[in-house]
Amino acid sequence: xTIVVTAPTGQIGGQVVKDLLAADASVRVVVRDPARLTPEVxxxxxxxxxxxxxxxxxxxxxxxxxxxFWLVPPNQxxxxxxxxYSGFARPVLGALRDAGRVVAVSALGRGTAxxxxxxxxxxxxAMDDLIAATGVPYRALTAPSFMENTLxxxxxxxxxxxxxxxxxPDNPAPIVATRDIAAVAARLLRDDAWTGFAEVPVLGPEDxxxxxxxxxMSEVLGRPVRYEQQVPGTxxxxxxxxxxxxxxxxxxxxxxxxxxxxENSTPTTFRQFxxxxxxxxxx
Length: 283
Fold this sequence. Notes:
By secondary structure, the chain is an alpha/beta fold. The chain has a single domain (about 1-275), classed as 3-Layer(aba) Sandwich (Rossmann fold). The chain contains eleven helices and twelve strands. It has helices at about 15-20, 40, 55-60, 80-90, 95, 120-130, 155-160, 180-190, 210-220, 240-250, 270-275, and strands spanning about 1-5, 25-30, 45-50, 65-70, 100-105, 140-145, 145, 160-165, 175, 195-200, 205-210, 225-230. Strand 5 (about 100-105), helix 6 (about 120-130) and strand 6 form a beta-alpha-beta unit. Helix 9 (about 210-220) packs across helix 11 (about 270-275). The radius of gyration is 19 Å and the shape is globular.
């Protein structure tokens, strides 16, 4: 079984590669700069150089594959959120259609009242529909906000005891560690029994408010940490506005459309994440 991983040097793709190699899977990666692969990974994978949004590269990379892990790379210069997602995928739909099975990272929100005005999420769901329409067996891993997003403000958190964002401070919502998304992806990529299209929610272990995130960070770091909401405005930049629209939709219930179950609750707690990533002993 040959499994192709796109974006293999990224936050999620890199962990998918490690999980697959740990299971002795045969892995092929699509990467713009092979030098970014660690030596341990590079010596164990087949490398196709280029962008998986390029039809020629995708045709070469996906040929003969049993499964593909699909992840759209960030593009802050895109003309629209739809261009960043569906626009990236559309030229390679033919290659994806023949790729065996496809597992992708997507977002929660389908079926909620605000899903159509949710920026990045709206665009991601539209891309899911585009890929699913090819008929390839497809699993969209629908995720809430990532725990790793807090690390963007780690200096402010550790030095000033504050982190900020547009989210309501008292709105409980799921939050997930990217390694748990990668683990679910690796399991599905290795499982050849599923067919059709389905969303697979990955919700983390519990719903937390941003005030509760701050309280957990305070306990782990041993110093006060508080959350400050910054009410977002508007932006002329399409991708910035897309992020604002997503945040506003989350404040209005975007992440609350899926009932939590043991099957969609993943194991890494935010406390565990902070202990590993925000302390001197963390990664």
